[in-house]
Amino acid sequence: MRQFVTSKDGTRVAYETVGHGQAVLIVLGALNARKSGTKLAKLLASKFTAVTYDRRGRGDSSDSAPFAPEREIEDIAALIDAVGEPVCVYGHSSGAALAISAAVKLRKRVAKLAIYEAPYSLDSHARKAAKEYYLALKKALSSGHNGDAVALFVRSVGVSDKQIQAMRQMPMWKGLEKLAPTLAYDSEVLGEGHALPTAVLSHVKMPTLVMHGGAGSPAMRDAARAISEAIPQAELRTLARQTHGVSPKVLAPVLEEFFA
Predict the structure, then answer these.
(1) So what's the pLDDT on residue 188?
(2) DSSP for 181-215?
(3) What is the mean pLDDT of residues 225-232?
(4) Cβ of 116: how many Cβ atoms within 10 Å?
(5) Exposed, middle or buried, 187 (CB in 10 Å: 0-12/13-18/19+)?
(6) pLDDT band at 205, cuts 50/70/90?
(7) Which residue in 10, 90, 186, 198 is a FRET match for 228, CA 20 to 30 A apart?
(8) Which ranges in the chain belong to alpha helices (H)?
(9) 251 by DSSP, 3-state: which?
(10) 51 Cα distance to chain centroid
């Protein structure tokens, strides 16, 4: 059943819970709303209270200007107030970057942290590309070209122009265009140039599981390794045959074991 919490700046954040036990908050990445986490939540529900939510500007959640990554951490704090602390937090992609920041800021309110393929840039070429992407994204959004903004994002993650043209004809494209403004939020959560936040990572004090897919990109593998080396209590794990779109059936048992 959908419920709401009110964040510090008045933003209403929609969330759902399923199951019983230790609360596990699922924080998803770009162009995802809470429904994207439903399968994972149901798989965790036999042992945990799984919490899915619409990040601000998505789904049934409202939004408030101006945006800052700190506002999303306040949203997570409001959710923890609602479900009870401490929580375990799982973050995927740019949601992993948000989960890391929240874990550092909220400290003992987060018992354990698990992340999958936070897309940080490790070299100057990748950081330059991330900066150019963000500038182009902001230009498209400020001009009201939400479809172009979505195309920029999906192209940046390896989708071909031919595939993008086909996607534009699909019914789901309208939904992606509606979410387009939040792409800027994801980029800002990752920081300028999406550079590895070594100083922030060194302040993650809770047990942390850093994951990447064995069939994914080398860049994600290298980022996961760098993250695990920067976090004091981190364990690095490769999920065999998985790509960036990790299977909930593969992920759930790993999270169950780590969060237990």
Answers:
(1) 98
(2) HHHHHHHHHH-GGGB--HHHHTT--S-EEEEEETT
(3) 98
(4) 28
(5) buried
(6) very high
(7) 186
(8) 38-44, 69-83, 94-106, 124-142, 146-156, 161-168, 172-179, 181-190, 198-201, 218-230, 248-259
(9) helix
(10) 14
Amino acid at 179: L
Structure tokens that stand for 152 in this block: 């920029």
Tokens, residue 111: 């018992």
* Three-state SS annotation for 220-240: HHHHHHHHHHHCCCEEEEEEC
Buried/exposed code over 68-80 (b: 16+ C-beta within 10 A; e: otherwise): ebebbbbbbbbbb
pTM of the predicted model, to two decimals?
Answer: 0.97
Rounded to 5°, the CA angle 120-81-91 comes to 20
- The share of the chain scoring above pLDDT 90, in percent, equals 99
Please name the amino acid found at residue 7.
Answer: S
Q: What is the DSSP letter of 67?
A: P
Handedness of CA 31, 34, 40, 44 (dihedral sign): positive
> Between the CA atoms of 92, 90, 106 and 235, what dihedral angle is there, to the nearest 10 degrees?
-100
- Distance between CA atoms of residues 65 and 137, nearest Å: 18
Question: Which pair of tokens denotes residue 255?
Answer: 């999270």
* Distance (Å, whole) CA 172 – CA 165: 13
- pLDDT for 177: 97
Retrieve residue 115's tokens.
Answer: 């992340």
